[in-house]
Protein 1
Amino acid sequence: VDYQHVQVPFEITLWIMLASLAKIGFHLYNKLPSVVPESCLLIFVGLIMGGIIYGLNDKSPPVMDSDIFFLYLLPPIVLDAGYFMPSRPFFENIGTILLYAVVGTIWNVFGIGFSLYGICQVKAFRLQDVSLLHNLLFGSLIAAVDPVAVLAVFEEIHVNEKLHILVFGESLLNDAVTVVLYKLFRSFCEMPAIKTVDIFAGVGKFFVVGLGGVLVGLIFGMTAAFTTRFTKDIRVIEPLFVFLYSYLSYLTAEMFHLSGIVAIIACAMGMKRYVEANISLKSHTTVKYFMKMWSSVSDTLIFIFLGVSTIGENHEWNWPYICFTVIFCLIWRALGVLVLTFFVNRFHVNTITGKDQFIIAYGGLRGAICFSLVFLLPDFHRKKLFIAATTVVILFTVFIQGTTIRPLVDLLAVKRKRESAPTVGEQIHIRFLDHLLAGIEDISGHWGQYYWKDKLEYFNSKYLQKILLREYDQPKSSIVLLYEKLERKHAIELAEAGQLGHAPSHPSLLCFVFLCSNNDKTVIIDKTLEDTLNSDVLENIQEILARNLYRIRRTGPAYNRHTLPGETEPVEHAKEILILRHKNL
Amino acid sequence: VDYQHVQVPFEITLWIMLASLAKIGFHLYNKLPSVVPESCLLIFVGLIMGGIIYGLNDKSPPVMDSDIFFLYLLPPIVLDAGYFMPSRPFFENIGTILLYAVVGTIWNVFGIGFSLYGICQVKAFRLQDVSLLHNLLFGSLIAAVDPVAVLAVFEEIHVNEKLHILVFGESLLNDAVTVVLYKLFRSFCEMPAIKTVDIFAGVGKFFVVGLGGVLVGLIFGMTAAFTTRFTKDIRVIEPLFVFLYSYLSYLTAEMFHLSGIVAIIACAMGMKRYVEANISLKSHTTVKYFMKMWSSVSDTLIFIFLGVSTIGENHEWNWPYICFTVIFCLIWRALGVLVLTFFVNRFHVNTITGKDQFIIAYGGLRGAICFSLVFLLPDFHRKKLFIAATTVVILFTVFIQGTTIRPLVDLLAVKRKRESAPTVGEQIHIRFLDHLLAGIEDISGHWGQYYWKDKLEYFNSKYLQKILLREYDQPKSSIVLLYEKLERKHAIELAEAGQLGHAPSHPSLLCFVFLCSNNDKTVIIDKTLEDTLNSDVLENIQEILARNLYRIRRTGPAYNRHTLPGETEPVEHAKEILILRHKNL
């Protein structure tokens, strides 16, 4: 047996296998995941694994390597989060999110740091050797809400979209703040004396790290979109570019000490729209599927490793310090959310309710990022205490808060996510209001959200689309796309029910959206009108659709079924023209 | 800038990016890939890259690490090859393939080894210090036809299926022989004296290495199939298991010094059927797409690295030895194919023609496997000569043979692959003949190919399917599946042409396959009958189909559209029953 030779890939594969099998195991019993969040179960599996390793080897099991975490496990999760980020609620609440992420995190860091320093002054606790700077350093790593933990819990409890994006957006964007504060305090710890200049330089760094991350991400995102313009002949490597460019943006940002998380989110959000239009439908399915799969595996591995790393002799159990850490984490977060929300609510009509505030404060879960950062600390004699405190905070938030948040959401009757997708009528109205508000803002000279959105949209259609999309001269109306999708779905349903060719199209579907291909005057008959239409009108609509749909589709989007590899478009077009002519005769 | 920190993943990503961009670049000019095989262009890119690195650093660029090749780059290609292997022609020609792979490779190894030893005796060449054993060792690594190189060239020239599977199957299965001979000679080189026992042990090893690989592969393949029985609730990690289990089979086989290539092929071929039935349609698309993508990237990287590694000072240019190596490789392969085919043709009705023999001999391309093996040689003073000879042989076969094989195929008018898929009528007849021949073989007591296939099929449906498939009590008729697929495709076409609900189903499609859901008496009306049917009969058929198709589909296969994540089957079923009832009223 030559185990040495294959050790590295073999063990990696086995760990991934363990993670996947654990996931299957939980889902075999349907009741389990609905009571306990998966993250808790995975940590539990990790604890058992760690116990076994500890028992067999009689030494501490290997802790999760910080490099492995930051370079290999975290990026897939953040990429998935950024790519599937609902951009509308995100940009609508960007101000609030940034306030929570920047001011809130700073508030927590200093709050926790200073109060723990106060605890250290109590002689009975024997902690007087922990300096203020070390407490602040510890505060900077323990204050950060963890996107992986938040995602794992919030994806299961289905709170309303705004609440979800507030907590989740904060957990993603506070990375820039955490990175800066953590590095700042760490360098202060090693400096003999701290000058005022250094502190100002630290403040300036916030902007460099955050905005730099956004810039790096956008550059890579645009390059990715541009690259996919040229992949028409080799569809099979299209998904690769999505992954390669986002990963490069993360690594590049990390290389320049910028925020990798912010970079990868900017990259994913920036390229999504263009890449989706350029690549084939199958490629897109693969991208989506693989992203979900990868992030799900990373996520699982992180929680299992968290459990494994908890076992061992890395800890110094000074209970007063640990307990007060947990308490301060809770108190300062609650206070921070209350104060910040007070200011936010003064400037918004659509306020954040008291219940929502409670869930935001309660949903501040800590996770693997804290854990990796604490192991990256420079060696000093109280490092094991910090490790112990971090472990307890993570386990407390994931187990206690993670398990109780679902009953609390039920108990408080927090507004849930609406299950159904918005109707076409709603979509039209929302878009109409957007244009209206942009116009109002333009006339009144108020440069608000809608004004900028409109300008961006103009810039996008005027310049970006021409450069980044393969076929840019098309009507990109989402309604046309929706109609086609519905018709296709309906056709498949009919085919599977064996009804094709007999029944007329299901009236509600045809009535659902009715549009003339004439793009200037899009006539929409809302769903609510359905009942008032008689069959003559319906037939008339069908006639118009049948005659005109070809024209729409010919100038249709790049990612329809006809650009799949191996199919030649001209032939398809010719065939359809023939079908239509034949029918008309 | 902290480059050290991100170096490893950054450089890996950049190499993959270079490979992908090179691929895009070639395909931008449509004429280039049709004249020169992609592998040549990639090696050329590699040569340029190597030249640049050499020029900048003034030292040899890093050679391709053999471990990286065997552990990370080769498995995806072999997995792809095994998964998409057309199993029918493979098993029909398994005897011939094994003869070429085992006897042919041994023939080549000893032929090339002994004749090169003869060359070494010529005093003028100054090669007298190269022993017979070293020549045989060199022969064992240079004789092996390379699956990566063969696949790269043969996928582009579209020769007939039998010819393709003969060359490609040989290149895959000779791995077991090459591994054994290479390790045998290498251990002989280090032994002070060779006993007769050792030689017999070597012969015995053939069977252990080959059959052991098959066994390991099948065990992992069956486990993979069994695992996918339980992934119904977490579709998103289904594709992962396909990759994890096949990779584990490869690594496990390598660990026990068995043939990893044979193992991964056995695993992929074994699990394919069951996994496909268990996993969702989207998962399957992802599996297929990712496999193709991964193998395509690996393939590209291998050829680029081949080029990069060629540049440098690792070579000893003894031209007589190198030239004779190329000549002997050609001669012995041609002789081997001639002699072996002579015997094969005596036992087969469907003989291998002279043209085919020429292409088989000419298509014996060498590639990265030789290259990695020559670098793995133990250090001895003539290693650089072997490296130079291997490099020249690879470049000669890939560039000269690879570029000229397409014109030769055209010139000789070698039978091409038929472009169209077999009709349903053909499929029925083939299956009917299979059963007939199995019956004849059973009665006559001749245990041939059909007899074993029939037994295997019985064993499969009696035991394996019950264990490995989630829903095994279904009619697995491929005709039902095909009909559904055609109807669905037709429905989508109609929907896209805007004709849904107006036109009756296109007659040729409906007439194409007509089957009663009554599984015992499947009535097939062949495509050729289409014209003789009048519209009344057609309508009658449509009636029967519409009434009966629901029943088929309810007990349909696990991987139809209705088992996608997020869709609840009972609701769908209820809805369809409603539609059908409504229609009947």
Protein 2
Amino acid sequence: MNKIPSNIMALASNTSNKRETVCIFGTGDFGRALGHKLIQCGYPVVFGSRSTQTSSLIPKDAEVLSHAEAAQKAAIIIIAIQRQHYNFLAPLAENLHGKVLVDISNNLKINQYPESNAEYLAQIVPGAKIVKAFNTVSAWALQSGTLDASRQVFVCGNDMEAKQMVMDIVRALGLTPLDQGSLLAAQEIENYPLKLFPMWKFPILLSLGLTTFFFFYCLIRDVIYPYIYENKDFSFFIAISIPNRICPILALILLALVYLPGVLAAIIQLYRGTKYRRFPDWLDKWMLCRKQLGLVALAFASLHVVYTLVIPIRSFVRWRIISYTVSQALNNKTEPLDTTNAWLSDSYLALGILGFFFFVLLGITSLPSVSNNVNWREFRFVQSKLGYLTLVLCTAHTLVYGGKWFLSPSSYRWYLPNAYMLSLIVPCIVLVVKFVLIFPCLDKPLMQIRQGWERNPQYSS
Amino acid sequence: MNKIPSNIMALASNTSNKRETVCIFGTGDFGRALGHKLIQCGYPVVFGSRSTQTSSLIPKDAEVLSHAEAAQKAAIIIIAIQRQHYNFLAPLAENLHGKVLVDISNNLKINQYPESNAEYLAQIVPGAKIVKAFNTVSAWALQSGTLDASRQVFVCGNDMEAKQMVMDIVRALGLTPLDQGSLLAAQEIENYPLKLFPMWKFPILLSLGLTTFFFFYCLIRDVIYPYIYENKDFSFFIAISIPNRICPILALILLALVYLPGVLAAIIQLYRGTKYRRFPDWLDKWMLCRKQLGLVALAFASLHVVYTLVIPIRSFVRWRIISYTVSQALNNKTEPLDTTNAWLSDSYLALGILGFFFFVLLGITSLPSVSNNVNWREFRFVQSKLGYLTLVLCTAHTLVYGGKWFLSPSSYRWYLPNAYMLSLIVPCIVLVVKFVLIFPCLDKPLMQIRQGWERNPQYSS
Amino acid sequence: MNKIPSNIMALASNTSNKRETVCIFGTGDFGRALGHKLIQCGYPVVFGSRSTQTSSLIPKDAEVLSHAEAAQKAAIIIIAIQRQHYNFLAPLAENLHGKVLVDISNNLKINQYPESNAEYLAQIVPGAKIVKAFNTVSAWALQSGTLDASRQVFVCGNDMEAKQMVMDIVRALGLTPLDQGSLLAAQEIENYPLKLFPMWKFPILLSLGLTTFFFFYCLIRDVIYPYIYENKDFSFFIAISIPNRICPILALILLALVYLPGVLAAIIQLYRGTKYRRFPDWLDKWMLCRKQLGLVALAFASLHVVYTLVIPIRSFVRWRIISYTVSQALNNKTEPLDTTNAWLSDSYLALGILGFFFFVLLGITSLPSVSNNVNWREFRFVQSKLGYLTLVLCTAHTLVYGGKWFLSPSSYRWYLPNAYMLSLIVPCIVLVVKFVLIFPCLDKPLMQIRQGWERNPQYSS
């Protein structure tokens, strides 16, 4: 956050004046919204329009002139026109010479045109100083003042002074300008507002798929099986018991999948004997969404914690404990304390609590503002040391939880093992391979490779 | 965070030297604190003072000269004097010509003077380059080195080079300069340190009011009523039971109040047929504090979760369950499992857990560092889609929780309905109206209006 | 976060071209990694190397020339060579005149050399414009594209234009340049990547020490004592019961230690009658790590909360309640509700919940992105008002929890008091001293001292 916090600004405008005139070409929605806002913030605004009669839509205090006349009145011209109509600017090139043209346009698709709109504009009006800005702000938000979302406005351009002038306007509107460098950045800036969580797609689809699979798996084992063989109606397990089985399973599998690509990369590098060849594409993409995978895993782990803590309040659990107590009282017997059982129960809970604790720590350090305050050495310490510790603790939690049932035949229903057994496969593989990779005979060459050493330098070029 | 993390810097100063001399006018508290710090960071410091004899208060290594002499020694002069005494600079105008004057003053009230102190200084010494800076840092923090709070120093000024020079000093002191643009921003910068959570006032006052009302409401129903009619002392309900009734009620009402203004705005726009007229003032203000309302609601929801999870540990609850079990054992009966009850209990818990989960997600995305990493499209997706999902889940949670009691006469005491019934009014209204607004016959014109279409363009100007 | 979110960039490069040639001196690991990345982002790259035959290691599309030839081809030269070999640049001084030299070197120890590597480079090649950059990025991360950690690149240098050119390259690589001012900042920038949580060392070591002490203390009282005198095996207490005793104790002590230095500082200032003398070194260091102490305390408090909520699920606790219920049923008696007990139990839970709630609030406001959005007045309000409120609530929670046992002789085993009694010493001292300091006769002079007043000004200079 590089700005005086937001909402305050939105109310406190109107106070300052003495601003320089700004010209806006185009009287469409965004042009008008921007004009309104600029006038509110004390800027004299001139609209450039083909016909000067559509004035009823335009803010009262703004002048409406022809394009050529309007351009003369201001040093900064905001082009609030769609890219398809940029051609009409070509004949105006003389009027626009030396002016700062602000390209605020967006496209409908990512990489819709070979060059960015701003670069296209620079080709059409070569004498002007093009600055890309404002495209990440919605007209509706600008209009209603409800800029709760990001107030960041990416700005790029080749002329430093022009960029500064535009950034001053951005600041005056209560927004935060972020210099993104030269006009070459325009393509990226134009693609930015079109994205919808691109890095989250794979983790979320994967977890949806796994959730569906494990839901039906547990439904068969825990609801349908007892209904058929014991004629018991446990359909209400769908609300809490089954989700509380799926959540820890997904948390564990996804957490293991965060560390699997790193292990695979190490194997590939050891095999190739160099770090200077690119990984296969799927591995590259997998590595880039590890953070998102981890956060989805954390979400499932958190749900698991709440579902577990809620257990003693559930009316079914209360009923079960009360019936058990009553039956003991009626049978006139008191069971002695089973210390082994107490050990098992307490230690799987303790392992789970510690695992969750470190998992949350990992989550907090992945907050942008925290990870920005951490250097590379610290980040690696947290993400790899603490990360593996979390994985070990969570795997141990699951192992101790299910320990007693592993070999019991009653835990197989229709030959289906308990779901948590399936969840142990990936984490155990990751931990075993990682354990092998720690051995000096493998760790040393790997370190050398990562420091730039190559086994067969002659082949690598 | 645009700086090498903080505390490290504070210890590691003294290392560098070769700095340019800085002159400070005024030997008051802030002047001296700044002088100390500048000397620590290797800057030669000259104080300009009316009398050069108050030297005992001044850092040892600093020179104290008359204003005119001191001004000659440095290119940058920090004006550590109150605005009322700026007049004395007028006769020095010649000595100050071309110098960078840093205005660090603050006022006692918001918008105390028509123009900012920095602009006033610029009028008095027109030949100097005025830069506003340092006013957001406390002298005490500067002195003690305990800058745990924000290290951000807002800087503004019309001369780019002067601003750069001041920003370099700011950086050298271990602080983070933030360019706020031209001197017009000075007013806002001077108001900034005077504010005390202005956006939080309404949500906090509202929730305090509602809390008080519901506290006495529940006190009457749950403590006074049973005391009078059944002579039972449930006064200890004040500690947990009643707070755990108030918290979910407030969370639900406040969450609904986050979405109510959006719904009202839609109705107003549909009625007016344009988006280009301002909303009434109260609606504008309400919309600007929606984020804060939501976060207060989240705080209440979190308290509700902890209060609920703590239930089985409460000695009262343990006593109640044990007595019930003992009475069952003594009566020699075991109740069978009531599946409907198990369904109801599990599903209201599950709805609550999911509602809370999405609520926390909303809270995390409203962290500044997260919302800055999200574009407008993603932000709208999260805040409106996930937001309404949360509201639906939480309302359903409350409905299922109380479902069985709605029509039972025993739930009315002194004709007062259960408190949670009152809490359902606002969310149900919001959800019903929102549901109506989704219908195409209303949604389509609304979309058009928000894209700039106007029903009666001739009237709008 | 000042950049278009990260990972997207890493995939979307290659699109732009027309970049200016960059020259890299040195074909070591970092040089090659940087070369690879620059080529990927569309920069023509020329390597300067002693022998032009090691070309097999070098990216295919890069040219390899002698140093002098390579330098001629580009305006920017990245010096990917270790400081010890900088001497070889002296004879090239003429070729490097007016060029931008980017120093990317790191050292092995903090403050290894009297001057920074960048300043040393400036001495060797006085005609060049030296810019420090890229040293905070790891070659491995650059190579693999997995820059999940901080993407911040600290940049400093005396020439504004040179700095801008380097910052544009940084941006083009998908990283975030942060201007740190003049070349004097280079020392700090070079030390930065060598640090490993320097501020966390003391809090973590302290809490490890205290944890060990209290672990054995509780082990003796709760496991060994009953084993010897009652021959009961409570060894499973190690998993949950003992941690759940240690965590709240440490949370309370560490929280009190956050506020102790402030209280000590006030006493010292009152005694000395001035704020302008430095505190003893240990107090300075203690004050600088208060935030970290508080966060460690919060971690222990969170663990305590989860350990406590898990209680009713523990098999030992279930066994104990069931046996108790059964024994009551067998003895045919039902105990009436003990209202005092219900009050005590509910109120210590309520105090704990509220204390934890405010503690979490404090933790959230200490997130960098939140504390940056808060001015000094708001920060002091939160950290001191809410902080003391938290301390009071947590101390009261502990007092009410143990209230009934304080004077009971059965709570002393081997003359050892219950561990929580020890934990009350520091917080009670802090609260009592703070309470005394609030009295006007002490508060007024303290305020005056903190506003710059001195009791004996003649002695202070």
